[in-house]
């Protein structure tokens, strides 16, 4: 009877679910045919414009839409391959191949979104007021000490554009053309988010900063930055970095496939035109009210600039959109696509993430003096190791690698192989970058070991400490690595110090766990024998437990080293230089050969370091086994 009742219940419960799933799948198939994929290159203005175009697409044309994230070069490449349907903001001057691709007919340019933007080197208003003579780009030459580079205190630092953008190279040429490279280092940001974080962090601390930026953006709408003046724009001279930056023509582009299949919607996109003040106004509205991009788009079309509807659409289409928007008097409170509570878990716990942001920013300001000491210390350690690596002849460093390989692996053949592999890195012109990467990895691993081994020893002998730290270690090991970059960036700014902190947090877990495990696995009889001879806790730890646990500890060292190497490319996004930055540059510029060479150098370095530490670990295990065997033989002789 129970089985019959259970079967009936399952049928009654699963039947509506299957019907709903079938209906959903059919709807999804139908929607897929009318789905528009917009490119999302990360900044707020394009998200707002996507929301505006998406709102019209839904209300007037019956489309659904989605966004595909990617950098500017990658999104443009996706457009050429028909993987993205529309890029609502194509910053034509920032894409080296834009004009050539357009001329060859690889995509369709539908119109101009806006062309009244500004870009160039900006300084905060409080710096401009404090130094009234600092008005032009050329004036920076007198203020190198004001904008001091934390990693090279003999020079200042200018934060350039995002790696892969054409304007980034032009601004580099500007630094060189004006002779600023003699007193300034030019820093390329891994992403616009990193550049924004550097500028907002400097603003919070009222610190000096000079950085490339552009309008319209939420940052320049929220913070008062001043554009440094330059010589009048000249098209020929500008390509060599001389003269003011022109307004960039930001176009609306569609893939050839999409343009051919959807002419009516593309006709609307050809009329889609915004201005920088409109976009800045909407972004400021979002910042003040906490509205989403969709809500800001509805507000812009109903309250701020309703005339846009008549500009973009035919009268009949405009009436359809107005009726849709008039269904609610408060578009800010509209939540589209309300979830079905039975199939989508309802959200009922609203956490204000801005409070966390404010706390971290406030702490960064109040603890600035302490954080500066930490930053200077870490930068000093990295610099010391780097000077040691670059201060000796390269051939001597290769001989050191050969010697270490011979000692660790036991054969000269292995040592010569590792030396040859490192030689290849130098042969492709990346020796200096390798030394920088190696300096950061060595510093990070050294700090991780100095902290991790004592913590592992602590939790090996304390069950309460083990229970307390276990969830913390689990969280550290499973947290996405990019999360570590955010607090490090806000507290320590861009550069090597932030990279070292993020790497230590990510890589420290294995050495803690394996140190604790190794000590716990030491034969209890051996430990008791040590106690019976009157050994103190310290003597027992130093002469018995650590030597016996050394193979496991060395495995932890190896894993920590490999995890530190895996952060090389990730930390380049917050300004850590070296091989990782070279890989990031190649990715942003879609330079396959450059990326393969830099990536191969990272792999070679990781393999050499891995084999060296594995060789030491194997030797320690052999020595430990020999000691255990000798102890067992002596014990048998005593018993006999």
Question: What would you say about this model in short?
Answer:
It contains 28 helices and 11 strands. It is mainly alpha-helical and 640 residues long.
- N/C terminus separation: 71 Å
Characterize the main sheet.
Answer: 3 strands, antiparallel
Number of helices: 28
| Secondary-structure class | mainly alpha
Strand order of the largest sheet: 3-11-4
Based on CA atoms alone, the radius of gyration comes out at 30 Å
Indicate the topology.
Layout: H1 2-33, E1 35-40, H2 44-59, E2 64-69, H3 72-80, E3 86-91, H4 98-103, E4 108-114, E5 119-124, H5 125-130, E6 148-149, E7 152-162, H6 166-177, E8 184-189, H7 192-205, E9 211-214, H8 218-222, E10 225-227, H9 235-238, E11 250-254, H10 256-261, H11 263-271, H12 276-289, H13 293-304, H14 307-312, H15 315-326, H16 353-366, H17 368-390, H18 394-409, H19 412-427, H20 431-460, H21 463-478, H22 481-492, H23 496-520, H24 524-532, H25 537-566, H26 568-571, H27 579-589, H28 592-639
Parallel strand pairs: 1-2, 7-8
Antiparallel strand pairs: 3-11, 4-11, 5-9, 5-10, 6-7
């Amino acid at each position: 009877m129970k089985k019959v009742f259970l079967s009936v219940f399952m049928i009654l419960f699963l039947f509506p679910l299957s019907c709903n799933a079938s209906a959903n799948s059919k709807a999804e198939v139908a929607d897929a045919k009318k789905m528009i994929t917009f490119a999302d290159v990360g900044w707020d203005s394009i998200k707002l414009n996507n929301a505006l175009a998406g709102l019209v697409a839904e209300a007037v044309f019956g489309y659904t839409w989605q966004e595909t994230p990617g950098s500017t070069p990658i999104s443009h490449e996706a457009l050429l391959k028909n993987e993205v349907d529309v890029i609502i903001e194509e910053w034509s001057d920032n894409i080296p191949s834009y004009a050539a691709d357009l001329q060859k007919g690889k995509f369709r340019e539908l119109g101009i979104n806006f062309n009244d933007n500004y870009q160039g080197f900006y300084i905060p208003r409080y710096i401009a007021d404090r130094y009234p003579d600092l008005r032009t780009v050329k004036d920076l030459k007198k203020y190198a000490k004001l904008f001091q580079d934390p990693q090279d205190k003999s020079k200042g630092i200018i934060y350039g554009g995002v790696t892969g953008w054409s304007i980034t190279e032009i601004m580099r040429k500007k630094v060189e053309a004006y002779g600023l490279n003699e007193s300034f280092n030019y820093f390329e940001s891994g992403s616009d988010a990193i550049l924004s974080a550097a500028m907002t962090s400097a603003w919070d601390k009222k610190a000096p900063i000079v950085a490339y930026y552009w309008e319209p953006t939420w940052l320049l709408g929220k913070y008062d930055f001043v554009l440094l003046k330059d010589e009048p724009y000249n098209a020929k001279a500008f390509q060599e970095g001389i003269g003011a930056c022109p307004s960039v023509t930001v176009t609306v582009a569609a893939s050839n496939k999409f343009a051919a299949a959807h002419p009516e919607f593309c006709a609307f996109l050809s009329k889609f035109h915004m201005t920088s003040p409109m976009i800045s106004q909407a972004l400021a509205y979002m910042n003040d009210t906490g509205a989403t991009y969709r809500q800001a788009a509805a507000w812009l079309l109903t309250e701020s600039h309703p005339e846009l509807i008549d500009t973009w659409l035919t009268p009949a289409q405009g009436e359809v959109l107005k009726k849709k928007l008039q269904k609610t008097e408060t578009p800010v409170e509209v939540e589209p696509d309300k979830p079905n509570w039975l199939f989508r878990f309802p959200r009922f716990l609203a956490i204000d993430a801005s409070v966390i942001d404010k706390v971290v920013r406030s702490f960064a300001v109040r603890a600035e003096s302490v954080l500066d000491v930490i930053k200077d210390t870490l930068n000093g350690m990295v610099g010391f190791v780097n000077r040691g690596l670059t201060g000796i002849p390269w051939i001597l460093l290769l001989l050191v690698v050969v010697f270490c390989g011979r000692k660790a692996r036991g054969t000269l053949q292995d040592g010569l192989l590792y030396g040859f592999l490192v030689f290849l890195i130098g042969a492709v012109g990346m020796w200096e970058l390798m030394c920088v990467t190696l300096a950061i990895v060595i510093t990070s691993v050294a700090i991780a070991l100095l902290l991790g081994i004592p913590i592992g020893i602590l939790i090996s002998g304390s069950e309460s400490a083990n229970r307390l730290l276990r969830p913390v270690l689990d969280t550290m090991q499973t947290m996405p690595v990019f999360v570590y970059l955010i607090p490090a960036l806000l507290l320590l700014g861009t550069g090597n110090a932030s990279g070292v902190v993020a790497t230590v947090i990510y890589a420290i877990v294995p050495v803690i766990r394996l140190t604790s495990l190794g000590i716990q696995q030491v034969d209890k009889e051996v430990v008791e024998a040590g106690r019976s001879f009157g050994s103190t806790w310290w003597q027992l730890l130093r002469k018995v437990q650590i030597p016996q646990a050394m193979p496991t500890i060395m495995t932890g060292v190896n894993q920590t080293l490999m995890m530190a190497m895996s952060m090389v490319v990730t930390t380049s996004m917050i300004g850590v230089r070296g091989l990782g930055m070279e890989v990031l540059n190649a990715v942003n510029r879609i330079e396959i050969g450059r990326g393969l060479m830099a990536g191969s150098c990272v792999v070679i370095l990781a393999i050499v370091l891995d084999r060296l530490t594995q060789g030491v670990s194997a030797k320690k295990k052999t020595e430990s086994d020999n000691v255990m065997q000798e102890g067992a033989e002596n014990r048998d002789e005593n018993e006999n």
